[in-house]
Specification:
- The protein is α+β, with helices and mostly antiparallel strands and about 180 residues long.
- It has one domain (about 1-175): Aminopeptidase (3-Layer(aba) Sandwich).
- It has helices at about 15-25, 25-30, 45-55, 105-120, 135-145, 170-175; strands spanning about 1-5, 5-10, 60-70, 75-85, 90-95, 125-130, 145-160, 160-170.
- α1 packs across α3 (about 45-55).
- The radius of gyration is 16 Å and the shape is globular.
- GO terms for molecular function: acyltransferase activity.
Length: about 180
């Protein structure tokens, strides 16, 4: 568990199932999230998502639950997945219930997890794929030191058709020496 000012990051438990169901019901939150993990409506689906989150810890990644410091209630999740051992790279993803947007929570979580990933997990590259329409996530990543690399055209199929995803990344050398 990571204890940050006003928020905590902890490993998921099956008690978080209702949190996953609730966040997936928020249309504005899930608008640009993509297909994977976005249509959780049952306890069984939530359990599968929690199993996936926990399994990622065994794959040099991990998906943490975001809670308020004074509560253990799920308000979002963030973490690493798709670790590539040959290249020491990983993807970061996140979501937060919309009533907590604009409070710097995700920025704080990213800052902490980036430090953890480069220091403890020995990543060389952390990347993020973002729906090009998702201005909020792009702003958070840029504020966190990530650099825009380009657009992957019609990269993902969603319910309303193909969408373009933008690639952002942060390299370990940039993290260690922000002037590079």
């Amino acid at each position: 568990m990571f204890d940050l000012i006003n928020i905590k990051l902890r490993k998921p438990t099956y008690d978080d199932g209702n949190g996953f169901i609730a966040i997936c019901a928020e249309k504005e939150t899930m608008r640009y999230y993509g297909a994977a993990g976005s249509n959780i409506t049952t306890e069984a689906q939530a359990k599968n998502q929690i199993d996936w989150c926990l399994e990622e810890f065994n794959n040099n990644g991990g998906r943490w639950i975001i809670t308020l410091h004074d509560s253990d209630e799920y308000i979002g999740d963030i973490g690493f997945h798709n670790y590539d051992a040959n290249s020491h790279k990983v993807e970061i993803g996140f979501r937060l219930k919309n009533k907590y947007w604009g409070q710097g929570i995700i920025t704080k979580c990213i800052k902490h997890l980036v430090a953890h990933g480069f220091t403890n997990n020995h990543y060389n590259r952390i990347e993020a794929l973002v729906d090009e329409r998702n201005q909020g996530s792009k702003s958070v990543l840029i504020k966190s030191g990530f650099k825009y690399e380009g657009t992957l055209r019609e990269y993902e199929l969603e319910s309303d058709g193909y969408v373009n995803l933008e690639m952002y990344s942060l390299l370990k050398r940039e993290y260690e020496n922000p002037t590079t």
